[in-house]
Amino acid sequence: MTILCVRFQLPPMYEAALPGLLGLLEEFTPVVQALPPDGALADLRGAERYFGRTAVELASVIRVRALALHGVDCVIGAGPGPMLARMALRDARPGVTGVVPEDAVARYLADKPVAALPGVGTKTARTLCEYGLDTLGRVAGAPLSTLQRLVGAKAGRELHEKAQGVDRGRVVPNAVSRSLATERPFTRDELDPDRHRRALLSAAEELGARLRAVDKVCRALTLTVRYADRSATTRSRTLAEPTAHSAALTRAAYGMYEALGLQRARVRAIALRAEGLDPAETASHQLTFDPVDEKVRRLEEVADRVRAKFGPRAVMPGALAA
Predict the structure, then answer these.
(1) From residue 304, how far is each of 35, 104, 244, 292 by CA, in Å?
(2) In 3D, which of 31, 271, 278, 283 has the Cα closest to residue 173?
(3) First-to-last CA distance in the chain?
(4) Burial class (CB in 10 A: 0-12, 13-18, 19+), 173
């Protein structure tokens, strides 16, 4: 096992703590890939030789240091490759590292449902199950030509390889997440447009705060509305300028929602995704002479400091819009 998949148990909106935790991993290996908001991949091939310890033993040291130095617990999966390490993470729990043994990959995968394989969505899993290919062992034993007829030539080849434990992924150092997402589920199927808008406001304010916490701006926003019948509608909008300003994100979210023209729609959840992330320092900002806008931006700065000191729930959603 040479690859670790680490998920730090950070409170929501605390992505600003992730760089320090990545620095902890970089004390063991320079090959660390961030998986915001709370995870990372680490390639420990060199570290195993240097420290004379296995990846699982090093995982224990990483867990203790994260607790001692940052007060953050973590769960860790270990495997021969990134895909297998991600799958091992699902079997992990605090204090116990999930492991896919290098000499028992086929046995580990054999009884797993096809949906457990990263990259296999609901539709693909349903198609495979209709033909009796409900486990990875059965997918691995199926003829390649059969899989390609079911899911396509390229996808079929990749699926066949992954089901056999062939992991061609690699850890890419310093890879930066290109999106941030948040979702607002309702406790029951919601018909009230005002409640939909309040959920959008809350989601947009959270995204703005998270973007500012990691000094990022986004160039586009995507809205997904999930309905009671399990269908969904997705709309995207390119913003007038890259921003982490909650008011601008809220206006864009409201605009996309209104354009849907929903009539008595039974909504189960609303999700927003900020896409095309760039460093805030490289983004241009259109000057404005609107004193209200400048006041809101100053209030955002104060609210961000309050959140950093007292936690993400210290500022009530919608407080800045009041």
Answers:
(1) 23, 48, 12, 18
(2) 31
(3) 53
(4) middle
Residue with token string 């007060």? 71
b/e code 222-231 from CB counts within 10 Å (16+ = b): bbbbbeeeee
* Helix-helix angle 144-151:122-130, to 10 degrees: 130
Cα gap 45→79, rounded to integer Å = 11
Q: What is the pLDDT along the chain (322 residues), one digit of tens a residue?
A: 689 999 998 765 566 677 778 889 999 999 999 887 788 999 998 899 989 999 999 999 999 999 998 889 999 999 999 999 999 998 898 889 999 988 889 899 998 999 888 878 888 889 999 999 999 999 999 999 999 999 899 989 999 999 998 888 889 886 556 667 888 999 999 999 999 999 999 999 889 888 888 788 999 999 999 999 878 898 999 998 999 998 899 999 999 999 998 888 899 999 998 988 888 877 655 545 455 555 556 666 656 665 555 554 445 455 555 4
Which residue in the block uniquely carries the two structure tokens 């390889």? 161
- The C-alpha angle 174, 180, 183, rounded to 5 degrees, equals 150
Structure tokens at 72: 């953050």
Q: Which helix (H) or strand (E) holds 6?
A: strand 3-8
CA distance 25 to 43: 10
Residues sharing a CB contact under 8 Å with residue 261, sequence separation 6 or more, in sequence order: none
Pairing of strands 216-227, 232-243: antiparallel
- The model's pTM: 0.60
The number of residues in the chain equals 322
Bridge partners of residue 278, in order along the sequence: 217
Residue with token string 């930066």: 176
Tokens of 13: 């909106």
The token pair at 16 is 């600003």
Residues 176, 199: Cα–Cα separation, whole Å: 28
> Backbone phi, then psi, for 215, in 5-degree steps?
55, 50
